[in-house]
Amino acid sequence: MKKIHVLTAGFGLTLAMAAAGCGMKNTETPANTETETEIVLPAETESAAAQNGSGEGAEGFTVVYSEKEKNQELEKLVAEEYMIPEEELEETRYYYNYVDFNGDGKDEIFALLVGSYTSGSGGSSAVIVEDNGGELTILQDFTLINPPVYVSDTTTEGRKNLIVPSPEGSGYVKLTWKEGAYTTVNDGEEIADLSGETGVQIISDDLAADLDSGDYMTLGK
């Protein structure tokens, strides 16, 4: 599933931030014009693990922080998928973890992408990537993802359920596997809390602290 990405010049749709910090709004501009855009990304928030202190995540979930080794094959794959210009690669951060979603003993990759080409007011884009004969391919992509992501021990049609913070800012959304794909955040089941759930909490990093310290990876060199 490809996404439409917003360019800041030469096209009819741009993003601009309201001056009072009220969030993003779409603004139509004439074609062949240039617009200077300032985007404040929503993912610059503390993860649940950071908020709880001492690396503790939600009750019943084991906290796992993202991998710290750059994955060049993954970088190339997502840069092409989202058609990110060369000059934006070093401005696009990514966080990833290895997860066996279907219990076949082989890990897939869950990656979160944070940048002007992959993020909006409700959250950021993410992908599940699998290894097909030594070549990485995207199994599914998502929008409106905010960290951390909870991989539940509960399964639907053989794949672990995913639970993500609601883009509305309160509660969570459960994503289940149906007819060959996970439900989207817009179509997932809204739940008030994580009661009764157990599993692994991934992408548990404090994105705001990472940005301040420079301790993060980008799609560029």
Share of residues in helices: under 10%
C-alpha geometry: globular
Helix and strand succession? EEHEHEEEEEEEEEEEEHE
Separation of the first and last Cα atoms: 27 Å
Largest sheet: 6 strands, mixed
**Low-pLDDT sequence parts:** 1-55
* Contiguous helical run count: 3
Count of individual domains: 2
Beta strand count: 16
Please tell me about this protein's structure.
The protein is mainly beta and 221 residues long. The protein is 10% helix and 37% strand. The protein has helices at residues 48-52, 72-81, 207-213; strands at residues 13-17, 24-28, 61-63, 93-99, 108-114, 119-120, 123-132, 135-145, 149-156, 159-165, 172-175, 177-178, 181-182, 189-191, 199-202, 217-218. The strands form 4 sheets. The chain has a 6-stranded mixed beta sheet with strand order 3-15-9-10-11-14, with no helix packed on it. It is globular and about 45 Å long. It starts with 12 loop residues before the first strand and ends with a strand.
Describe the secondary-structure layout.
Blueprint (H helix, E strand, L loop, with lengths): L12 E5 L6 E5 L19 H5 L8 E3 L8 H10 L11 E7 L8 E7 L4 E2 L2 E10 L2 E11 L3 E8 L2 E7 L6 E4 L1 E2 L2 E2 L6 E3 L7 E4 L4 H7 L3 E2 L3
Parallel strand pairs: 3-15
Antiparallel strand pairs: 1-2, 4-5, 4-16, 5-7, 6-7, 7-8, 9-10, 9-15, 10-11, 11-14, 12-13
